[in-house]
Amino acid sequence: MLFLRFDPFPVLETERLVLHALTWENSGDIFLLRGNPQAMKYIGKPTLQTLWEAEQLIVAYQENVRDKIGITWGITLKSENTGLVGTIGFHKIDRPNYRAEIGYILHPDQWGKQIMNEAIRKVVDYGFQEMDLHSIEAKINPENSQSAKVLLKNGFEKEAYFKQAFYSEGKFVDTEVYSLITNVEH
């Protein structure tokens, strides 16, 4: 079974990004991100309506880390004082099977800048090298062609298409599953 070490919280850096723990200071940015209908279009969760909801989401992220069932990083640009521009993480960790589900969201102002490619590479490396994961999966809305492109560019393969797999905002929505498997034996 996986041995997860999230204390201290693992801060990850790339050439342009800092991936860090989410704190109360990020509440306003989380609200701007998760309250943005364009950013939330394919997420399959309700758009945040209040700052309190953003604060509760941060509490949930912190509890997931504490309970070692998930880890979410805030994405901040090193060179700009833009605040939080997105989040990325393993929101479901299947410890007995050495598997995790990756999820991410980026503010529309940052789309097209290769930020998510950079973040995914770093988080996938962390998952395989530090968490000892065997596989990482991503579930996306089939209409989100940009997310599919990002996953494929980062070595993920499309594994499945499920019709009406989840219920979101009053309707059943299809989902595609992408997966990446490490070449390291356990």
Order of helices and strands: EEHHHEEEHEHEE
How are the strands ordered across the major sheet? 1-2-3-4-5-6-8-7
The end-to-end span amounts to 10 Å
CATH superfamily of the domain at 12-136: Gcn5-related N-acetyltransferase (GNAT)
Rg computed from alpha carbons, rounded to a whole number of angstroms: 16 Å
Structural class: alpha+beta
Topology (SSEs and partners):
Layout lengths: L11 E2 L3 E4 L6 H8 L2 H4 L10 H17 L3 E7 L6 E11 L4 E8 L8 H15 L5 E6 L4 H9 L3 E12 L2 E11 L5
Parallel strand pairs: 5-6
Antiparallel strand pairs: 1-2, 2-3, 3-4, 4-5, 6-8, 7-8
Keywords: Transferase
Organism: Dyadobacter psychrotolerans
InterPro entries: Acyl_CoA_acyltransferase, GNAT_dom, N-acetyltransferase
Give your account of this protein's structure.
This protein is of the alpha+beta class and 186 residues long. The protein has a domain at 12-136: 3-Layer(aba) Sandwich (Aminopeptidase), CATH 3.40.630. Helices cover 28% and strands 33% of the residues. It has five helices and eight strands. It has helices at residues 27-34, 37-40, 51-67, 115-129, 145-153; strands at residues 12-13, 17-20, 71-77, 84-94, 99-106, 135-140, 157-168, 171-181. An eight-stranded mixed sheet has the order 1-2-3-4-5-6-8-7, sandwiched between helices. Helix 1 (27-34) crosses helix 3. The longest helix is centred in the first third of the chain and has 17 residues, at 51-67. The protein is globular, with a radius of gyration of 16 Å. The protein starts with 11 loop residues before the first strand and ends in a 5-residue tail after the last strand.
